[in-house]
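Sequence design from tokenized structure. All designs in this work follow the same two-part layout: the structure record, then the generated sequence. An example of the structure record is given first.
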């Protein structure tokens, strides 16, 4: 993945760029401000500050010959920054006051080197084009050349971020000219390019647009260029919903067996978990006093598996939409057409998922797996069918359809992880889906229909009886497949829940953490953990839904919910409500001062911090090892 991080002076661009490579233990840091001897003291201090922030394990190369540096493969390279590169080139060629000096060849060599570099490459560059045109010839020269460099490098990057006031905007957008340079070096790039082309975003919604009908989800409503907003901190604006361009649905020669054949799941890093636990003990608070925040931070640190854990940078919620044939039997308080209407509402930015995602700084993506209407290709490239079969008396999916749905969920998880998502959330949308979820949970936990049945959208007593009967019928059919998870999905889940199961299992395979949502997502999670044993170690339960089947499923997965707020909506809303708590937990682990740093006395008593054999708890001494790096990096 090649990323260009643009930003103004002190915008936070370097910190963001450092975060982007921080999952790598070894990073090649290319400093382009090489002539420190001639720099004024303040600039030298600025360079030193950048240097001090770099963790151990990073190697620094001071050079402006970027093609030469990039020709040697490295797992991760961070170039900071292209402004200094331009200055260095102008210095070398005497170009500041000689208009005939042309950097074009240098720029072409640079872009070729970036395009063909191995490993992750992150390039930082100042954006100076937003200021007034410089009053001096040298200033104008710098602005013009830097503008050309930024454009040329952006054209060969998979992702372009713009940092303003510490907030990140993803401005990758779509190449509307069709002249984008094909970097054509690896399969990741082509996936990402497909994604880029498939990244139209919707305009901000007006109140009227929130009620847009199903048939109105058409291509014209989707603007093909614009900003997505993977902001790391809480934001107030509602970010646009990402949708995707049409593509081949995942079918081909897939069998149910091959679609559900997951590689072994490896658990989050034991070493990082132990290191995070040890660091918790060094922080300026009584041991354990942040309660479950500490458990959450330790889990997340194990998942992030890097020297210093920090809040997630690019969380994404994928809403899996699909209708369920069983909804025709009065098992929901709302009519089936609400599914497609709500899909439109999500695209317009008016649903609860949009608002909560905006607050938590998460991207929103909508995927139609089985809505009972023709929807725009931008959301239906993985569509398996229109509605799933009535689970009371027919298989909800054929084997082939179930295979396609599971594979779709896997592909969606892969896509998100490949484009940089570091936390995944699945959300559900589909009238009748709590009936399917109850059937799955009842079957896999051997629980009676009357125990797992819930009020869903708010059914009355007559509806409750119809729903309980439907769950009973579904469980009767499902029980033959209790020990065959993919077949169970085909029998009763529907394409949306089957895709969710593939998504959750694949997230674990890709070592990417997940916050689970309510009863529907957790039903999919129960199946996913059976298809990919151990997947649950990558998940945390965001909340406990009002639906009675939910705590049953969570306890089978041995997961304790972060929140209990009597929510019963789905769409990923419970997980998104928990996300700020998870971020706060990580922020405390990353940024709190240690006893040693702050000069705070530790407890003397047995079992307290003073007795811990953890390094760095001594108020006289200095913190040691990775933790001090993390603490230094945090400041
Ligand atoms: C307006 C509206 C928005 C929703 N957003 C999520 N759901 C949630 O409720 C439905 C499941 O409940 P049941 O099984 O009772 O139909 C699904 O659409 C689910 O995503 C909604 C439901 C409604 C009515
Ligand atoms: O818990 C959930 O996920 C849920 C509850 C009611 C309706 N839809 C979803």
């Amino acid at each position: 993945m090649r990323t260009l991080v643009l930003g103004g002076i002190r915008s936070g661009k370097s910190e963001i760029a450092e975060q982007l490579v921080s999952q790598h233990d070894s990073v090649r840091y290319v400093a382009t401000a090489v002539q420190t001897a001639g720099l004024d003291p303040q600039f030298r201090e600025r360079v030193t500050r950048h240097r001090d922030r770099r963790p151990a394990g990073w190697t620094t190369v001071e050079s402006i010959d970027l093609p030469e540096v990039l020709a040697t493969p490295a797992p991760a390279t961070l170039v900071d920054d292209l402004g200094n590169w331009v200055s260095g080139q102008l210095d070398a060629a005497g170009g500041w006051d000689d208009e005939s000096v042309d950097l074009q060849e240098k720029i072409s060599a640079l872009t070729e080197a970036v395009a063909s570099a191995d490993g992750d490459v992150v390039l930082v560059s100042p954006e100076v084009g937003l200021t007034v045109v410089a009053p001096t010839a040298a200033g104008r020269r710098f602005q013009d050349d830097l503008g050309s460099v930024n454009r040329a490098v952006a054209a060969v990057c998979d992702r372009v971020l713009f940092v303003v006031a510490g907030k990140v905007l993803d401005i990758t957008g779509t190449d509307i000219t069709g002249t984008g340079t094909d970097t054509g070096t690896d399969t990741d790039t082509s996936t990402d390019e497909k994604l880029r082309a498939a990244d139209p975003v919707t305009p901000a919604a007006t109140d009227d647009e929130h009620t847009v009908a199903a048939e109105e989800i058409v291509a014209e409503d989707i603007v093909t260029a614009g900003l997505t907003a993977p902001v790391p901190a809480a934001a107030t604006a509602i970010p646009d919903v990402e949708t995707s361009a049409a593509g081949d649905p995942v079918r081909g020669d897939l069998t149910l067996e091959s679609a559900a054949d997951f590689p072994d799941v490896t658990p989050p890093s034991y070493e990082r978990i132990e290191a995070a636990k040890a660091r918790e003990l060094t922080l300026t608070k009584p041991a354990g006093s942040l309660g479950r925040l500490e458990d959450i931070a330790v889990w997340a640190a194990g998942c992030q598996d890097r020297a210093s854990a920090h809040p997630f940078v690019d969380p994404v919620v994928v809403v899996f939409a699909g209708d369920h044939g069983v909804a025709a039997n009065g098992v929901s308080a709302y009519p089936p057409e609400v599914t497609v209407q709500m899909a439109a509402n999500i695209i317009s930015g008016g649903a609860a998922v949009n608002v909560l995602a905006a607050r938590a700084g998460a991207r929103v993506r909508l995927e139609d797996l089985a809505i009972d209407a023709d929807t725009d290709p931008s959301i239906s490239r993985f569509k398996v069918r229109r509605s799933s079969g009535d689970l009371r008396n027919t298989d909800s999916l054929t084997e082939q359809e179930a295979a396609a749905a599971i594979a779709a969920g896997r592909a969606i998880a892969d896509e998100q992880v490949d484009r940089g998502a570091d936390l995944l959330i699945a959300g559900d949308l589909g009238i009748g889906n709590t009936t399917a979820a109850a059937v799955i949970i009842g079957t896999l936990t051997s629980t009676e229909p009357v125990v797992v049945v819930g009020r869903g959208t708010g059914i009355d007593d007559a509806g409750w009886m119809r729903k309980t009967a439907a769950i009973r019928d579904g469980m009767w059919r499902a029980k033959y497949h209790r020990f065959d998870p993919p077949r169970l999905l085909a029998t009763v889940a529907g394409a949306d829940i089957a895709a969710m199961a593939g998504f959750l299992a694949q997230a674990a395979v890709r070592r990417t953490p997940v916050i689970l949502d309510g009863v529907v997502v957790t039903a999919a999670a129960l199946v996913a953990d059976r298809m990919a044993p151990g997947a649950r170690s990558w998940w945390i339960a965001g909340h406990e839904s009002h639906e009675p089947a939910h705590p049953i499923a969570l306890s089978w997965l041995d997961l304790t919910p972060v929140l209990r707020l009597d929510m019963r909506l789905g769409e990923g809303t419970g997980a998104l409500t928990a996300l700020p708590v998870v971020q706060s937990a990580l922020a405390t682990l990353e940024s709190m001062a240690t006893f040693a740093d702050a000069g705070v006395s530790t407890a003397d008593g047995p079992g307290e911090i003073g007795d811990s054999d953890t390094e760095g708890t001594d108020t006289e001494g200095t913190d040691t090892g990775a933790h001090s790096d993390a603490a230094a990096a945090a400041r």
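The mean pLDDT is 85. We note this feature because it recurs in several other targets discussed in the main text.
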